[in-house]
Amino acid sequence: MAKHDATERDAVDRYTGGSLGGSLPDNLWMHVGLIGSIALMSLPIVLAALMSTQSVSQIYEVTNLAPGGQGVDNYTRALFEHDLFAFMINSFIMAIAIVIGKIALSLLAALALVYYDFPYKNAVFVFVLFTLMLPVPVRIVPLFELMVNLDWINTMWAITVPYLASATAVFLFRQHFMSIPASMVEAAKLDDIGGIKFLIYVLIPMSKGMIAGVGVITYVYAWNQYLWPLAVINNKENQVLQVGLKSLEGTAAAGQIEWGLIMSGAIIALIPPLIVLVVLHKPLLETFGLQQK
Amino acid sequence: MARIQLENITKRFDDVVAVKDLNLEVDDGEFIVVVGPSGCGKSTTLRMISGLESVSEGTIRIGGVDVTGQEPSDRGIAMVFQNYALYPHMSAKRNMTFGMKSAGSFTDEEIEERAMSAAEILDITDLLGRKPGALSGGERQRVALGRAICRDPQVFLMDEPLSNLDAKLRVQMRAELAKLHDELGTTTVYVTHDQTEAMTLGDRVVVLDGGQLQQVDSPQRLYDFPENRFVAEFIGDPAMNMIAVDVADGIASHPAFSIPLPDGDSLSVGSAVLGIRPEDLYLADEREATSPETFEATVSVTEPLGDSLLLHGQIEGHEFKIQAQPRRTITPGDTVELGYDPDRLHLFDRDTGEAIYHSDPTASIAPSGVTQ
Lengths: 293, 372
Known about the structure:
- The complex is a heterodimer of chains A (293) and B (372).
- Helix content of chain A is 72%, strand content 1%.
- By secondary structure, chain A is an all-alpha fold.
- Chain A has two domains: 2-76, no CATH class; 81-287, MetI-like (MetI-like fold).
- Residues 11-18 of chain A have low confidence and may be disordered.
- By secondary structure, chain B is of the alpha+beta class.
- Chain B has two domains: 4-224, 3-Layer(aba) Sandwich (Rossmann fold); 240-365, CATH 2.40.50.140.
- Helix content of chain B is 23%, strand content 34%.
- Chain B has helices at 42-50, 92-103, 108-122, 137-150, 167-184, 195-201, 219-224, 229-234; strands at residues 4-13, 16-26, 31-35, 57-62, 65-66, 77-80, 155-159, 187-192, 204-209, 212-217, 241-248, 251-254, 257-260, 270-276, 281-283, 295-304, 309-315, 318-324, 335-340, 346-349, 355-358.
- In chain B, strands 6-7-8-3-9-10 form a six-stranded mixed β-sheet, sandwiched between helices. Chain B has a six-stranded antiparallel β-sheet with strand order 13-12-11-14-20-21. A five-stranded antiparallel β-sheet of chain B has the order 15-19-16-17-18, with no helix packed on it.
- In chain B, helix 5 (167-184) links the parallel strand 7 (155-159) and strand 8.
- In chain B, helix 2 packs antiparallel against helix 3 (108-122), helix 2 runs parallel beside helix 4 and helix 3 (108-122) crosses helix 4.
- Chain B is elongated, with a radius of gyration of 24 Å.
- The chains are: A mainly alpha (293), B alpha+beta (372).
- At the A-B interface, helix 10 and helix 11 of A face strand 6 and helix 2 of B.
């Protein structure tokens, strides 16, 4: 029995990288390195969080790294006095609309590419991939002209529709559908289940992880859009958070930029995608074929 | 239930001919097994009957109706796949009823009733709430069968349904499939590469090779009266021994032996191939001789199988397999004296491989065109 315990213990030790006393010297430098790089990477966010609680004068004392007492004041002012709350709602609607639209469109495209036969199918797929070379910033001038012609300037349409077509999402869904056994489709054919029904009742439930993964990537991407909304939205009511954040820079108290206010805005802008990321990190990792131990 | 008729079916994939000019009739309620090596066109044939694969030439009738151009769902068939094709996110019951619900031609009560009765037949009532991931291979196979039974089809099509099961479960499910067919009496076409499955399940067995029909017969007749060398060597395990001989005046002669062919006095075909199954050869000292001749062989390999001892013997540099009685001490290098069962000899044409003679005295019911 004792021997058995010892063997088990050995196995556990091997798995966890050894007991702390035994193997610390081996791993010490690796851990120091890892902790150091994590600290370095999180430093900007930690500093922003700290500064968002400080008053203007506290910020200008460079050595003062203690949390200040102006946190609540900074956040309420940013959210309501400077309308970040309204911008956030606009950003939220835009991001959700893009996520839903992009996933719906890409699922349909992948369905057609995998399960239907039509001439030049591969050429169509290559053409879809080709659009990767033309993201929104490259198309900004002709796209702006189109928006003017459609009379979509300053509308939600302008900041959502141009983002709906996505080669990446089509590619990911196509690859995933191709990994589903052909006999499932054949079983459906024998039962006279049509394409859309098959998509809704079979493919989507079987692709939940992939859909959630694409959703997270798209949400974060859409939330962080800056250049295109800046160009196409020029009134305050319809503006999004990332552009609204920039407007905080103009505020000044006694000639000094209000960094506390700006940092609280930055933290506010950071939180929603962070929540999405934390909640859906598992399917996101699956999407990229990564595994978590 | 229905009769299936395949008339001059040909299937081409670009340059490759997968099935060539196939004619086959499956009787109402018959259990027919299609067997052959990989790539012989057996699955393609099944898929053409199901409508999942189009037909290049020919006509398929189910129940007298020409279904050649019909959609799979209009043919009144149900198919069981090798990998079961169950939807992983649906419970066993929903898997069984999903297709029927979508078809819309059944009421909810009817669907419920049919699912429950199928589940009872297959003894899976307790498993209906589980998803495929929580079922064992055998249980999944039952659910897949249940899905097919629910639809009460005219024809069952089964594509190697037992291949993914372990050996023990396969034997068990094989018996259950036979029982199920007795109960339901639905016309069934069953594809397999396993000859044991083919022999045990089929009312008749279809042997295919290279996309061409080799023989259709009952399992016993297939074993006793193979119409050509391919069937003779494919059916039976270990395979039939084949040795080149000269046939003159009813005697098959070889440098090492000459075997008189019973009732074959008039046979003088020159060079031919003599076929003797390993189980029809025995060691001369094992039993009273039934053969007029014995001959000697040198043992090169011994394979004890428990119920028998399989010997690989050399006769004039030609390899022979002999199924001897077990628990003998024979080692490689030994010389053994062999007898044979004179009623179980087969002769095949050396060029075409067609059977020209079976020594079985009941061979009067042998397939037409085969000389005795």
